[in-house]
């Protein structure tokens, strides 16, 4: 009957080819047991491509040909996670693990809790949505509640099934896990990059991150990415297994890649034994890990333990100690920050540590250099762990050469020669040059152009350096007078990229008040305070003329922030720059200030209480919340703002998780009552 599957019946042949190729992919990428030779795979693949070219109606979502990447995207659209992607609490020492186990056994009143142990992969967390078994969307974690849509890129990961197998596939499931790059794949990729005259990546994590952030998924398709599933978000349609370990087994049965370096253990002793056993095998693993993760195995017990604001109480990431290496301190130079802060920076002989080659590390301030007793010429220990900034730990006194010498803070700014001052009660010395200082100007401009500020794409650090060094611009307002004929004369610019920059400047003119406030770079005023200020005052003029008392009414503004804001707007040159920016057409919608809430009120907030609270009764909690103006509801719905969860919280907690509602404990509830 072979002829039935040939050209006379292209749909059946295509279905067969899809099945064979998907099976070969699974055997190769997930089971690591290749079933057919590469040449055979290529032949079948080519044949399927041909059928799909002749009959485009036969292309299906799960066709392996759909993994090669397609259209170039303009950007990544936001994806709101139905269930937020949380982070993990961290521990470093054995005693952290013992305390974790004690807290859990006390809360659960179970002295022999069962845990699922797994590896902490050093990659990027993603959420994959499958609907009726089909892969439909992938998103990054972002800040936890909203990520970015990276579907086209994730689809290129060969080990990921585009279709879940088995009979009982859920209607909807968000599979959570980590995208990473194996070390061998990373080495090959870097070799290829360098041969093509491109820069290599510092480590597999950066390579994975860079690959997922490609706007052209055809490039991602050439990057050897892998995936391991370790969690769940929203689900619907089938009951999920009772335990985490069974959940992962179920995933594996549906064809999802699950890492096999995992174990179910009991008590702190079991957790530590897992850590030690992984520790001995760490360097032999084919991918980087930065620790292990312990999770309470039973899902009902997980629900009873609940969440803190950003991390579940039922899990702990046990991180390996940061890697350390020895090198020689060549110099201590100073760097000038955006607000003039002078930071000593250690320059040392290049050294490979924690997955990257380091040549410098900040020493924070002069006191720190003195406290650590580090001399120029010393042999020093430097430390770096994954995402942590590198640091100089200490000097090896025994190796100190006779000509080693102390660092002295310069009296004048190395960039603009203005005086460096250190106020008696401050740890930081500052250049007094303000915007006369080109280093401060450069950083102010960079801050202004950042994605989270005015979002001027195409205006990187190197370009700002040139614009300032060639005296083309002095203030952010001058950016808007740039013309493409000027820009094209700078290094790294073509006609097209110059025009792109001018276009993005045009777009950047239309912004929001909170972005604009943040972009100004007022000391201590970050994104979240900028948002509060914009909401509170509604217009820039109202903010600029706000009295001390009016500023202090804003939620996160205390005396220090208030002073900084007042000082910034009292400086005539800052007012001039703002004036110039407005004249250049920078604009944002303004509105009336928010109506002020009466002090001490939770009016408009709906809270649901569930479980037994540790120190007060449900009744007292309800009275206190109602006295503050909150509505205390019996059931969790989309309108609920907070769920206060105690011990033995049940279905309401699960419902809250599914709806992505903030879950707080009693302590956090007291804080809410105090703050509002
Ligand atoms: S579970 C609710 N399991 O660690 C807990 N995370 O600090 C959600 N990670 O962003 C995470 N390996 O990128 C979990 N086996 C593992 C993990 C893991 C690595 C990462 C993940 C997450 C971060 C949390």
Show the helix and strand layout.
Blueprint: H1 10-30, H2 38-54, E1 78-80, E2 90-91, H3 94-108, E3 114-121, E4 124-131, E5 134-140, E6 146-148, H4 151-154, E7 172-180, H5 183-195, H6 204-212, H7 217-221, E8 226-236, H8 244-253, E9 263-266, H9 267-281, E10 289-296, H10 299-305, E11 315-319, E12 323-336, E13 341-353, E14 356-362, H11 366-372, E15 379-384, E16 391-395, E17 420-421, E18 429-431, H12 438-449, H13 461-469, H14 476-479, H15 484-487, H16 495-508, H17 513-519, H18 527-537, H19 540-544, H20 548-552, H21 559-570, H22 572-583, E19 606-610, H23 618-627, E20 631-633, E21 642-645, H24 651-659, E22 662-664, H25 666-675
Parallel strand pairs: 2-11, 19-20, 19-21, 21-22
Antiparallel strand pairs: 1-6, 3-9, 3-10, 4-5, 4-7, 7-8, 10-11, 12-13, 12-15, 13-14, 13-18, 15-16, 17-18
Helix pairs in contact: 1-2, 3-9, 12-13, 17-18
The structure holds 2-(butylsulfanyl)adenosine.
Task: Please characterize this protein's 3D structure.
This protein is α+β, with helices and mostly antiparallel strands and about 675 residues long. The chain has five domains: about 10-65, Orthogonal Bundle (Helix Hairpins); about 85-320, D-amino Acid Aminotransferase, Chain A, domain 1, CATH 3.30.470; about 325-400, Beta Barrel (OB fold (Dihydrolipoamide Acetyltransferase, E2P)), CATH 2.40.50; about 435-585, DNA polymerase, domain 1, CATH 1.10.150.20; about 605-675, BRCT domain (Rossmann fold, 3-Layer(aba) Sandwich), CATH 3.40.50. About 35% of the residues lie in helices and about 20% in strands. It has 25 helices and 22 strands. Strand 12 and strand 13 (about 340-355) form a beta hairpin. The chain is globular, with a radius of gyration of 29 Å. The chain starts with 9 loop residues before the first helix and ends with a helix. The mean pLDDT is about 90.
